[in-house]
Amino acid sequence: MEINLNKLPIFDSHAHFDDTAFKEDLSAVVAEMKENGVVGVINNGVNYESSAKIVELAENQDIFYSAVGVHPEDLYNGENFSPDKLLPLLAHSKTVAIGEIGLDYHWDTHPADVQKQWFEDQLDFAKQVDLPVIVHDREAHNDTLEILKKHKPKGVLHCFSGSNEMAKEILKLGMYIGVGGVVTFKNARKLVEVVADLPLDRLLLETDAPYLSPEPFRGKRCTSDLIYFTAQKVAEIKSITTEDVLKASMENIKVLYNIL
């Protein structure tokens, strides 16, 4: 699949290449992404085991970096957050963030009070180790914003789905907004409004691969090179070039995650 004839550099700020969707052909997928201009990908852990796996992926693939953490759908029932299980993973030079952490009230897998405790504990841990956070917020906007205002972390609100007013509050905290393939969907009017007002220096492009492929690939397995189509849509909304969008996002990623 030839995506980008100009080979514009692409950096994906959020993906999950440890997912079973890539179990059979990861090496081939990575080779094709690199051919299409992908120069960096930040993979996110969803629990202790996957966090260890993505650190291993970062060791084996030059374009991969890792964020380690416990996702709200993957909490361990009856247990508290155990930072000692993540600390060894921070020793790797390509571990750049604590994530994916946050709140998810869509599936009601874990009680809200349990989710909030794990979220706050991981935010505290991120401050202790001086790393940015990658925040998941699904149908939990009020609680997410309240906790972020309390802790004031450096980081990004990934796959942003809130209102323009919420986006402005996130920006006031000095955080970034993650924008993925959803912005290309026909029903993405709210996100289009957010993107229109979003300063370029606070934008992080992402895929959430293998999920949320942009149009015209919606419903198919997502890979990091498909960010090109998300960047095209953002460029259209902001009346600038796709290259400008990709360049700004990459610069922001490198600043936030201290990638030289």
Question: Strand percentage, roughly?
Answer: 15-25%
Identify low-pLDDT runs: none
Order of strands in the sheet with most strands: 1-2-3-4-5-6-7-8
What's the number of domains?
Answer: 1
CATH architecture heading: Alpha-Beta Barrel
Q: What level of helicity do the residues show?
A: 25-40%
- Determine the number of helices (DSSP H or I, runs of at least 4 residues): 9
Overall SS class: alpha/beta
CATH class: Alpha Beta
Spell the H/E element sequence. EHEHEHEHEHEHEHEHH
Secondary structure: number of strands: 8
| CA-based gyration radius | 17 Å
Q: Write out the CATH superfamily name.
A: Metal-dependent hydrolases
- Give the N-terminus to C-terminus distance in angstroms: 30 Å
Mean pLDDT: 96
What spatial form do the alpha-carbon principal axes imply? globular
Query: CATH topology, what is it called?
Result: TIM Barrel
Main β sheet profile = 8 strands, parallel
Key structural traits:
260 residues, alpha/beta, TIM Barrel, eight-stranded parallel beta sheet, 9 helices, 8 strands, 39% helix, globular
Write the layout of secondary structure elements.
Elements: E1 10-15, H1 26-35, E2 38-44, H2 48-60, E3 64-68, H3 87-90, E4 95-104, H4 112-129, E5 133-138, H5 141-151, E6 155-157, H6 164-172, E7 176-179, H7 189-197, E8 203-205, H8 227-238, H9 242-256
Parallel strand pairs: 1-2, 2-3, 3-4, 4-5, 5-6, 6-7, 7-8
